[in-house]
Amino acid sequence: MDHTSAIVLGNWGEEQAACYLQQQNLQIIGRHYRQKWGEIDLICRDRETWVFVEVKTRTSLAEPSAIDSITPRKRQRIIRAAMSYMKWKRLEGQVLRFDLVLIEAGRIEWIPDAFESSADYTY
Q: CA–CA separation, 6 vs 9, rounded Å?
């Protein structure tokens, strides 16, 4: 898949994920938050909890799978970007979590609280 096709597929997947999460009563607050050390696909609220969502889209069941593509390094970059967002918005001390939305071969899987930030990360 060329770069342009991958971007189009990624944007489509993020839109599908946003619609799905809204149906699950999450409020979409932001999209594509980028910093030099990482990016967040979707930023949501689930009642009082800030939710940082990574979306992975695959057109087929291929290797590596969508879940396998979330490496420890990728998680670290997501966590750093989330901490940056929380500090920027002065949300220190508020509850947050990290969710995954996996779209493979047209099937959506939402994994709430998919991973935690380690004790090394502070605001």
A: 5
